[in-house]
Specification:
The protein is of the alpha/beta class. It has a domain at about 5-180: 2-enoyl-CoA Hydratase, Chain A, domain 1, CATH 3.90.226.10. Helices cover about 45% and strands about 15% of the residues. It has 11 helices and 9 strands. The protein has helices at about 30-45, 65-70, 85-90, 110-115, 140-150, 150-160, 165-170, 185-195, 200-210, 215-230, 230-240; strands at about 5-10, 15-20, 50-55, 95-100, 105, 120, 125-130, 165, 175-180. The strands form 2 sheets. Strands 1-2-3-4-6-9 form a 6-stranded mixed beta sheet, with helices on both faces. The chain has a 3-stranded mixed beta sheet with strand order 5-7-8. The longest helix has 16 residues, at about 30-45. It starts with 5 loop residues before the first strand and ends in a 10-residue tail after the last helix. InterPro entries: ClpP/crotonase-like_dom_sf (IPR029045), Enoyl-CoA_hydra/iso (IPR001753), Enoyl-CoA_hydra_C (IPR014748), Enoyl-CoA_Hydratase/Isomerase (IPR051683). It comes from Klenkia marina.
Length: about 250
């Protein structure tokens, strides 16, 4: 039986889905993707649920794809193949989805929060598109990050892979509300209250009007191909072995 890596709580119209795999920094492992997919489906099918909240245990919100599972796999075997459906479910959810980010988010983890309707981040949260530094491409997550973020900012940050703070994330459009760490819970609660005050059908239709269609097909092929490429596998190995990748200038 697969261990639980996601904690689900439904209370007073709110389904809180808590990423609970701190040992691998809440990475998007096969288990995490499957459990998150099932929990989202259950929350969206439950008429008593008005708002969905993505939260996390541990210091890290989500470190992105589980690179231990990506090592050595062919393009068709890469975990990114299931990721678009997960992002699309959040993006097109008729119910508002809110992310509570209390720590670092990287790569696919940034995509996960970018698909949400409202993102609340604490001062300790940091963000980064680390893909190019390990020889892969932020293709799939670009579908949800580009509509959210200012064009020049997403261009620079995806190319450099630089880590940026919550204030910068808010200035670029990735984060909606950047607050003190101690204020995250209260801010999330206030946003949940505001969202739940909307009529369910009206909220769903408003989201439909605001959300564009996502075309993941060409992005998925690119992402999976680079994960399986020589550069991608070298970058993943270097990351896991805590050494510079072969293309990093030395001396």
């Amino acid at each position: 039986m697969t261990d639980s890596v996601l904690h689900v709580e439904v209370s007073r119209g709110v389904a809180t889905l808590t990423l609970d795999s701190p040992a691998n920094r809440n990475a998007l492992s096969r288990a995490m993707r499957a459990q998150l997919r099932d929990a989202l489906a259950a929350a969206l099918a439950d008429d008593a649920v008005r708002v969905v909240v993505l939260d996390h245990t541990g210091r890290v919100f989500c470190s992105g794809m589980d690179l231990s599972e990506a090592a050595g796999g062919a393009a068709a075997d890469q975990g990114v193949n299931e990721f678009p459906d997960l992002l699309s479910t959040i993006w097109h959810s008729p119910k508002p989805v809110l992310a509570a980010v209390r720590g670092p988010a990287r790569a696919g983890g940034v995509g996960l929060l970018a698909a949400c309707d409202v993102v609340v981040a604490g001062a300790s949260a940091t963000f980064g598109f680390a893909e190019v530094r390990i020889g892969v491409v932020p293709a799939v997550i670009s579908a949800v990050c580009r509509p959210r973020m200012h064009a020049n900012a997403v261009h620079r940050l995806m190319l450099t892979g630089e880590v940026f703070d919550a204030a910068t994330a808010q200035a670029t459009g990735l984060v909606d509300l950047a607050v003190a760490d101690d204020d995250v819970s209260a801010t999330v609660e206030a946003q949940v209250t505001a969202l739940a005050a909307g009529a369910p059908a009206a909220l769903a239709e408003t989201k439909r009007l605001l959300r564009s269609e996502l075309d993941f097909a060409p992005l998925l092929e690119t992402s999976a191909r680079f994960f399986a490429s020589a550069e991608g596998q070298e970058g993943i190995a270097a990351f896991r072995e805590k050494r510079p990748a072969s293309w990093v200038p030395q001396g």
